[in-house]
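Problem 12. The chain below contains 522 residues. Write out its predicted structure in token notation.
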Amino acid sequence: MRVSSAGLLSLALIAQPVAGQEASTTGGPLSAIDWLSKSVATPATAITGPGSTAVDEPPVAEAGSALPATVTTSSLDGPSPDSVGLITTSVSGLPRDLWGAGRTREIAERLVAHPDEDLPALRQLFLTLLLAEVAAPVDAGNRGELLQVRIDKLLALGALEQAAALIDAAGATTPELFRRAFDVALLTGAEDQACRGMANEPHLAPTVPARIFCLARSGDWNTAALTIRTSKALGQITADQEALLSRFLDPDLYEGDPVPPAPDPVTPLDWMIYAAIGEPLPTEGLPIAFSYAEISPRSGWKARIEAAERLTRAGTIPPNVILGLYTEHDPAASGGVWDRVAAFQAFEAAISAGDTARVAATLPEVWARMQEAELEVPFATLFGKNLIELPLDGEAAAIAFHVGLLSPSAESVARRASPASAEDAFLTAIALGTAADALPPDSLARAIAAAFRAPATSVEGQALLDGNRKGEAIIAAIDSIGRGVEGDLRGVTEGLSLLRLAGLESVARRTALELMILERRG
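Solution.
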């Protein structure tokens, strides 16, 4: 299942830790993804940018041969590849000089270190930072280091379609960017496209596993078998790799034999080969990017739902994907995901029919299931506006009010509201931008109100703003609010204040609403 370009842009108004590997010009590592397939060889003499490191796997020769060969690589084309983006400033609301006086390495370190568990509004903001078309940092040069860091972070967050689009927009065919494009293609069901891309780039040298995989995909079984034998004789692949690749070419020949153990870490190419021999590796427990491999029709319905839930929770696919999957079939059993499916289907049928009584009866159950899966905001995006149009009362009305405030229609919902409690009154004030004058019902609300009454950020945050480093200030604000979710209420005040001072008023309001409504407190 692919996400459309329109879906990508809508997400912009929208894992595993990234381990350092590829070096910057100023020393130490910037970023890398340790689970990327070694699909192309990058010999030490092939420089993609100052300080780049080599991939420790021998290259193989050009088409038709299984013998080693050397390659050369081309540098990133065009000025300032770090300025490449998918979202214009008119759409993102971010300034063209987002990074201002910031230095590439310091920006990269903030991006890499940023945790993956944000509130939905902040997750969308962070993804927008990664995808924004803005001026490159002042010291960026022509190296494309920040571009690769942004791509790696997108991969780590599971934003594969967005990462692929960013690579395409860069128009670069360096080995390191190709490796990322190759793996995205594998995980999104575009294996043949990945292999064609490799064949169409003569400066890329496919490694043994990638070459065999692509030869098999093209039906050239004889050359694939020769490549395995030659590579084993030359010591280029291990015994386990030989066994797995041979089994991949002819699984019937090895029926009944033990399957070679999965490597650690598992790469997308590994995952594809194990799936091809009928021994698919579960994606649960693997980096979230692997979830993409299970939302295609090739996987079972339950696996597709669970993978889509992970990606929807991460904010990297549109909510209508999970809507389609939840309603695809009747639930196969009960418990766990099936209870969510049953509750969702009952509610969706009721609201589609405009049956107020059935909506009132089914809403509490589906809302509890969405809270259980932390899918409240996607649910609100799908149904918030419709819910508020229905004449509900009691528990259903209270839930509908919260759902509406979590939806894109929060302000219009608040204008029509008749708050039934002090907390509801405060929520309404947040949505309307009058939280500074509202009575906070608890300590969290007091921390939120302070940011709207008299914004006061941290010393670091103010220094970043004063130093014309707005992008880094926004990341610092997101991190501060993250600490607030864990119990540091001062972080809530400082982070929301910094968002407002950076000109992101609507994001600050959405974040404040999520802080109050969602159960994410540490």
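Discussion. The longest strand covers residues 27-31. Students who got a different answer should revisit the alignment rule from Section 12.3.
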